[in-house]
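During the first year of the project, the team set up a workflow for recording each protein of interest as an amino acid sequence followed immediately by a discrete structure-token representation. This format lets reviewers and collaborators read both layers of information side by side without switching files. As required by the reporting guidelines, we include two representative entries from the current panel. The first entry is reproduced here exactly as it appears in our internal archive.
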Amino acid sequence: MRQPDIEIYLKDADQEAVTAWLNTALGSCTPWQQKGQTFKCLAGDVPVTWLPKAVGKWHSLYLESDATPWEDDLGCARAAFAALGVEIRCAPGGWQEAQGEEDADRWIKVNAEGEQEIIWRTD
């Protein structure tokens, strides 16, 4: 089932490289508008939020639409890794608060070694 939005975390990713990838994957990006710590743009018709160093060295990329080429976070993570060559982390599926705290720490990392489910405590 298609997720209503997508969020992935990119390790040490360069914003310019991410912008180039978004241009290719989603359509031409508008210039980034900084709002506090975050940056926002439109990639094609998709509102995008970039939060540098959201968790340590990890940058958050949030796509606020279900109109992307990817069904879910993992599909986007795979594409981002293939294009950028940096480790990507994402939730293993949509997470709801009702699922409890333990499930909130379950993540999938995508890197040169493949895909692996991990426990990542982000707080």
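The second entry, processed by the same pipeline in the following quarter, appears below.
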Amino acid sequence: MAPESEAVEILGEDRSLLLVDDDGPFVRRLGRAMESRGFEVTLAESIAEGRAAIRSKPPQYAVIDLRLEDGNGLELIEALRKVREDTRIVMLTGYGNIATAVNAVKLGAIDYLSKPADADDVFAALTCKPGEKVEPPENPMSADRVRWEHIQRVYEMCDRNVSETARRLNMHRRTLQRILAKRAPR
């Protein structure tokens, strides 16, 4: 089967995908990966850009980050549901917790993935049939890696300010400096 016909078979005729994430390199990398899987990708890096994309052409599929610089990704789920009920939405976040996952699903998301999610995980979540469960990851992140990812995310949110990051994480500044100096755990 040709790649084009495979994509139509799996994704359907409407292969439009909206990716919304304020991490520019991540969203562009994910966009390229999803295009290679047959999607017609539109990128947005803010709530405002996401709303504009939804108004111009409501997508069949959407992957939305929870926390964006100009607001909350849950707003986009609501906006998207108002104009297109059948959109398959996956919520991404670096801050996985049960309350936001439940809220995202109540608003209409079909799945909730923690960052860093790879393109295969996102594709599987977008294309799973209703009631079908996505396979658990082959190599899930270790607890040390999850902790390291969280520290890095807070560090970036604090504009790489070690003192502010240490304060928000409730840890000693020197301890944080040692953690930041090390390589990421596997």
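For the second entry, the following points were noted during internal review. The mean pLDDT is 83. Strands lie at 16-20, 40-44, 61-65, 67-68, 71-72, 88-93, 109-114. Both points are flagged for discussion at the upcoming steering committee meeting.
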